[in-house]
Amino acid sequence: MSQLQAPGAVVMIRPHHFCSNPETRDDNAFQTLARETADVTSAQALAEFDAAVAALRGAGVSVHVFDDTSTETPDSVFPNNWFSTHAGGHVAVYPMYAANRRKERRWDVIELLKRDYRVQDVIDYSGLEQDGLALEGTGAMVLDHIGRIAYTVKSNRADPVLLERFCTHFNFEPMVFEARDAQGRDVYHTNVLMGIGTDYALICLDMITDPTRRAEVAARLEETGRRVIDLTPEQIAGFAGNALELTGHSRLLALSSRAAEVLRPDQIAIIERSATLLPLSIPTIETAGGSVRCMLAGIHLSPRERTQS
């Protein structure tokens, strides 16, 4: 169970034409416009990405890198939205809300998973985009792989019917709630609001609008043995909730340098009882409205044994 919540391998997509996606700006309050020219911004994002990969590998995480050379996929650096993997050999492929994000799906990633890991089935929901449905993977859902709960903020990126279908197929219980920021704007993805580790959970409870539901979410996290680290809206704005626990040489919490800087010492102390912080500097990539967790598609699959030639 040690790696059930904290995978030891990830897929990352190396962006060669990064920019803040104009098609998602209307409902992603975390997006900002880069100050530099397009070429400079793209080069900075590429450098940040490569440094993050080096840091993860140096910490013992297995990183599968795919290059994206398309100019039509500005959010390709965030692959966790279009596929997810699950213990027992299961893979899900998701429908995306923004039209240009649908172009991020690439079957060479799925083929690598089949080659290097034990994949039993691939359930592809992406055809439901034609019906106007979206469920943006582990952005829309924050999955408790141990307690089998899919925490999901209501949004246009998390269709309730499709969420129920996913939970039936993958054996999760949906736990849906509304969440808004201090300005009253809907939270677009659950994974900017919360992140679940093996022994703790990062979440801003104040942003859950219904007090009864807020208490229920906190209670469920505690029932599954997590220590709840209640973040402030200001910490969420600094991407403190957008973190992913991984297993490398030891258990790690990958998060951005900005996120690490806004955590309080007492919050860090709780995390460090079971995981070492691994801050990654990605200020340019964060202008696109996502942070470290969005960049990491965790691999919850069993690796194939390598045959000797």
Automatic annotation (TrEMBL):
PANTHER family: AMIDINOTRANSFERASE (PTHR43224). NCBIfam families: citrull_CtlX. It comes from Phaeobacter porticola. It comes from the Bacteria. InterPro entries: Amdntrnsf_FN0238. Signal peptide: none annotated. Pfam families: DDAH_eukar. This is Amidinotransferase.
